[in-house]
Fold this protein.
Amino acid sequence: MSTMTFSRAINAGLRRALENDPKVVLMGEDIGKLGGVFRVTDGLQKDFGSHRVIDTPLAEAGIMGSAVGLAYRGYRPVVEIQFDGFIYPAFDQIVCQVAKLHYRTQGKVRMPITIRVPFGGGIGSPEHHSESPEAYFTHTSGLRVISVSNPQEAYSMIQQAVASDDPVLYFEPKRRYHDKGEVDESLDLSTAPSMEKARVVTEGKDVTLVAYGPLVKTARDAALAAADEGVSVEVIDLRSLAPLDFATLEASVRKTGRLVITHEAAQSGGLGAEVTASITERCFYYLEAAPVRVTGFDVPYPYSKLEMHHLPSLDRILDGVDRALGRPNSLSGVEG
């Protein structure tokens, strides 16, 4: 076991993928000589050469189009989108080509492309650098969408994504890049949890609290704080956003009878809406209260002095737990 930062764990996972398969190539803006703006790919071009760790022009549509061509020729491209808000020029390629080609060719062509997307806020950057665009892609059939929340999963799931024959969007919470954790580099990926499976982070019996990516840590902290008041919160890390692991979600909600989901993205049309609607359909007679969403607001991402008011905090998540339990909360007009 080694102690690594989140970003170093991704780097180690990419290194292992490059070592294991000569058809793996990395592509992105400034990922080679510079090592990426967050230094996630630091040292990889030096060790594997500029033909496998490729600095590209500042042209996301061109990067994705090139990745499609490489995938056609049997390569496994790993594309870095430098910031979440820069993914939109590549949207047409991802949705109209990457997601569709396997189906369009009746299975003859696969698109084993991994698209790394640093996403979310909390780093003091403005719009286009702090966004959460995951719902656009979970809506698109043909794409797998995952988000990691700790160094161990960052290490193992990037390798699982690269090994997948399906296109995978791999969302990395950039405000967690410097978080440290234990990483088992000897882990056999064949026995590691599937990237499609959700993870029960903490067990509880009163409320199910669902999170992913950057908010898993905040949700875990909220569960610890709630325990001080005698409230038992079960925290679930979705890990896979498409497809969703409804089996794990249903089992938890049928036990607790209450659901809270939190994410940084805006509420309207967000992943929380899909989770709450689907769980209501599947677990209606087990629910003791309406599901609660604790999310970012339906506004453009604010400038840095306001972003911590925009992002779901420990206090806002605890308030959502209170709403699900029918306790005094910010919407009830009753102070505790």
